[in-house]
Amino acid sequence: MNRKELDPEKSPSAAFGHRLRALRDERGWTQDELAERIGCSGTHISAIETGRRPPTRRFAAGADRVFGTGDRLERQSSAVRHTALLEGFPEYLTQEASAAEIRLYEVGVMPGLIQTPEYATVLAQAALKRGSITPEQADERVQLITERQGTLDRTPPPLVFAVLDESCIRRTVGDPAVMKAQFTRLLEFADLPNTVLQIAPFSMGERRPFSLPLYIVTRQDRALTSYAESAHRGHFERESTFVLPILTAYHQLQAEALPQAASVALINQVRKGIP
Prior knowledge:
Layout: H1 12-27, H2 31-38, H3 42-49, H4 57-67, H5 72-81, H6 89-96, E1 101-106, H7 117-129, H8 135-148, E2 159-165, H9 167-170, H10 176-190, E3 195-200, E4 214-218, E5 224-229, E6 234-237, H11 240-256, H12 260-272
Parallel strand pairs: 1-2, 2-3
Antiparallel strand pairs: 1-4, 4-5, 5-6
Helix pairs in contact: 1-5, 2-3, 4-5, 5-6, 7-8, 10-12
């Protein structure tokens, strides 16, 4: 019987299909047997495994139930469905969901992994008013924030290193209540046993190696991937060889940024200034 070879690096749909097939093969089930357990057809399973049909949230949740994978397939399926994202970011989301380590650098806004729903909603509504996204895409962005944050709750959780440019905590988003809640969330994040939070102060000046948002993922097999973006484009890098220089620059950024204790003190100082 001919089986179509799957390249999980090709797209989020291919990554989901590859994982679904691997889980099915581990149990020795045919597509029809899996379909019977989930409540669909073998043809539907085939279409999802080969990337010809995107998985719905309901399908992914059913597969999680059948395979006993918690909500991992459901979270991975979000990378396939979301359309209000820059090129490359859906592929990054697939890597983030199962990462061993996540390193991020953000400028101007709180990272999605740490945003409160209220903070995310203000940003989405602002983009909607500018006409840059549709109402459906605005809802999608807020929903995605919640789904991504499930990564921090899985067992075992990833190690997360976050360096925020000082502009992230100086920029006001929404009303004082939104900002106070966001600062509380930020401090809770810093207090987790698997996280390190640092602020890159304005005083770093030209010593700051990055000027745009950056994400680096260390996978379970220790391979490296990265994602970087400008205002209109995103780039997902799959080759560890090209990510290594970025990782070196990130370590330099961490060395120059404020230590976590000093970063938390600065966050508290800014928070006290909110009326």
